[in-house]
Amino acid sequence: MIALVDCNSFYASCEQVFRPDLQHKPVVVLSNNDGCIIAANKEAKTLTEIPMFQPVFKIKKILDLHNVVCFSSNYTLYSDMSRRVMDTLKTFSPLVEEYSIDESFVDLSFYHPEELVEIAHKIKDIIYKNTGIPVGVGIAKTKSLAKLANKFAKKIPENDNVFVIDSDEKRNYLLQSLKVKDIWGVGRKHAIRLNNKNITTALEFANLPVAWIRKEMTVIGERLWRELNNMSCLEMLSVPHAKKGIGTAKSFGKKLTDYHLIAESCSYYVAEVADLLRQQQSAASQIEVFLTTNYHSDTDKQYQNKIIIALDSPTNSTIVLTQKALMGLKKIFKSGYRYKKVGINLSQLVPENQIQMNLFTPYHKSESKELTQVMDAINSKYGKNKVKLATVGNRENEWALIKEHRSPRYTTQWHELLTIGKPSRSACSKDTISS
Q: How many CB atoms lie within 10 A of CB 137?
């Protein structure tokens, strides 16, 4: 049996863990640059007047009216809280698959079926005790059914955030109540095609002939059909697949016209993606740099461009990647525009122990693996960017994202620890939003 453990309103819950005064109050988390709402707790979700993904400045009056508390995204905090949830899950099973930052599949096949309800409640309670994060637990024979069970665990209050599909009666009941468009893995086009065939529920989909599914929805549809019929097709992954590409693109805190500031931000983001590249022990064969103005603006002149550079040989050296990225940036930059965003993409990744070197490219000391390892070790011990390239500069406050309402990074920064007995440093509030 497989459990899907899903954190409830994860980003907002992380903020409420360290702000108990916000329990039962509407809380939302904003996107980069505090642009729009990307997450909300259940109290905020009940306020139907608050649309998700709307620019905050357009709905500020509504937020003020309902005393909604807003936070800038604090991914350092969310990532560390996620790790703590995963660590707790690993005390229940040696095989835990981290599906996303707030969802994990847990192999419970070695528990007796009659123990599963009790185990599910224990998982929920101990995670809450250890981290303060509420979770829902759905258990079934397959991943797809576990996902469905988790949905109903949260949807019906009487389930107390736990639901186990341990009989065909329960499976059929849930499939009958689920529309095909809501099945995990069924896209919009397939949902329309199924509806045109008068297949409207997941149960009707599961009762279709497998030959029809294979013909109309390929092997992917057949895999989903089998999963809904209690035949496990999606294996548990103990180690996540290595990413095939790694990139980042973030808006500047304000529009930039100065090439040198843009180059500093570009160098900073190259260092970020190169670090991720080394963490998964890969090297990139190609780097893409792109630059764009704000295409939503009616007043700014518009320009966007990108360049893809093939590297002489695959590398994960921050120094080499930064050199290539800045060469590319120089070629696509044009003066006279107010730029909004720069981005980096690394692609054609290969394992770092399978790099094919180029006989005609001279080796340079800056590509030294030992040098990179020393820089990584110092930054890991003393904090991000304690050692960095000079091209990153020291003017981050002139281009970095706006994070006016970011909460402290309570669990990873010594100088931002929660202080007991004294008011916590306020991350944001209705007052700061409306000021």
A: 30
The CA distance from 433 to 435, in Å, is 6
Q: Is 163 exposed, middle or buried (0-12, 13-18, 19+ CB in 10 A)?
A: buried
In this structure, what are the phi and psi dihedrals at residue 201, rounded to the nearest 5 degrees?
-115, 160
* Residue 366: pLDDT over 70: no
Closest CA to 328 of 315, 344, 316: 344
Q: What is the rounded CA–CA span in Å between residue 28 and residue 13? A: 10
List beta partners, residue 140. Answer: 2
Q: How many whole angstroms separate alpha carbon 226 and alpha carbon 148?
A: 14
Amino acid letter at 384? K
Share of residues in the chain with pLDDT > 70 (%): 94
For residues 252 and 213, give the distance between their C-alpha atoms in angstroms, rounded to a whole number. 47
Q: Is the dihedral of CA 430, 24, 3, 191 positive or negative?
A: negative
Helix (H) or strand (E) holding 284: strand 282-293
H-helix or E-strand containing 305?
strand 304-315
Q: Beta strand 135-140 with 246-256: parallel, antiparallel or unpaired?
A: unpaired
Question: Under 8 Å CB-to-CB from 218, ≥6 apart: which residues?
Answer: none
Q: 223-277, pLDDT tens digit by residue? A: 889 999 989 888 888 777 778 899 998 888 889 999 999 999 999 999 999 999 9
β-sheet bridge partners, residue 350: 283
- pLDDT tens for 194-209 read 888 888 888 998 898 9
**How far is the C-alpha of 233 from the C-alpha of 185, rounded, in Å?**
13
pLDDT greater than 90 at residue 340: yes
DSSP code, position 19: -
How many angstroms separate the most distant Cα atoms in the chain?
70
Characterise 393 by phi-psi region: left (phi > 0), alpha (psi -120 to 50), beta (else): left
Task: Compute the distance between CA of residue 407 and CA of residue 15 in angstroms, rounded to an integer.
Answer: 7
Distance CA 435, CA 298 (A): 27
Q: Give the least confident one: 4-8, 15-19, 365-369.
A: 365-369
Could you give the CA distance from residue 38 to residue 73 in angstroms, rounded to a whole number? 9
Q: What is the mean pLDDT of the chain?
A: 87
